[in-house]
Each structure stands twice: as structure tokens, then as C-alpha cells.
Write a structure and sequence with these properties.
Strand content: under 5%
Shape: elongated
Number of strands: 0
Structural class: mainly alpha
Number of helices: 3
Radius of gyration: 13 Å
């Protein structure tokens, strides 16, 4: 469980990146809801990765 929690940020970043790549391949780049969701997932993933790994290391 600790390993999954440690990698939660990376998982969120990867999900956001996969959404962006899928939108690019399907040509659905004008839908702001999907693009905004993926951007939010990437930002939350980055922040959670930093905070979680800082707490686990301490």
C-alpha cells in the first residue's frame, strides 16, 4: 500500500498525459473540459508526488 501511495503522483501524471495524447490522436483538441481535466490531473499529480515523497522520506 505504501508503494502505491508513493507512486500516486506519477500515476496521476501519466493519466493526464494519456488523456492529452488520446485527444491529440483523435483530433479532439477543442474540448476545453477534457484538456482542462488533463491539465489539472498533471498539476495535482506533480504536487502530490512532491508532497508525498517529502513526507515518506522524513
Amino acid at each position: 500500500m505504501k508503494g502505491l501511495l508513493k507512486n500516486l503522483g506519477l500515476i496521476l501524471i501519466l493519466i493526464g498525459a494519456v488523456i492529452l495524447v488520446a485527444c491529440s490522436f483523435t483530433g479532439n483538441v477543442n474540448n476545453n473540459a477534457i484538456l482542462g481535466t488533463s491539465a489539472v490531473l498533471i498539476v495535482i499529480g506533480l504536487i502530490s508526488y512532491i508532497l508525498i515523497n517529502k513526507r515518506i522520506a522524513d
